[in-house]
Sequence to fold (222 residues):
Amino acid sequence: DIQMTQSPSSLSASVGDRVTITCRASQGISNYLAWYQQKPGKVPKLLIFAASTLQSGVPSRFSGSGSGTDFTLTISSLQPEDVATYYCQKYNSGPRTFGQGTKVEIK
Amino acid sequence: EVQLVQSGAEVKKPGESLKISCKGSGYSFTSYWIGWVRQMPGKGLEWMGMIYPGDSETRYSPSFQGQVTISADKSISTVYLQWSSLKASDTAMYYCARGWYFDLWGRGTLVTVSS
Fold:
């Protein structure tokens, strides 16, 4: 089965910073990748699908890129409300595996 | 309103059985896969499996195959996740979610297994 590896596992950045999270698939998955945000104590929320398509209602400071095995989620200007854990997920075929998560905090 | 409504929190003893539910409304229930996701306390998201309510085709994660059963009753727009013999390690929040990528989530069902 394809494994999904995120890095870093956690990060601390200042308000206004550009933040990048990486997700790597152990085999190519084309662009069948989604990103989710889970705030503490809340239900996960879809941010991006098809690697780079922003879900309706998601702020434009979030963006995604990549194809094949390497993907990134970028927050162009970190805001206090972005404190959360972010997960990638493959959905091409087989198990819809999640990455292990990246916890984002404010410095 | 488009939503998935999950059944309430459960407290069970090891060895007991359990079936939790997820009811869809506001959209064509039989046209979307529904998946189940486990989140153990303080841990990440784990994909358990999914079902297509239109024909009940089901797929499981190798990690959960044989440990749980996913089923659906399309007549009442409801998907189920069940255990025949719970363990303490099944203590977790369980989410249902819609689609190949999950654009709609239930609020979760907290399952606590303790003697």
Notes: Residues 16 and 77 of chain A are 4 Å apart (CA to CA). The radius of gyration of chain A is 13 Å.
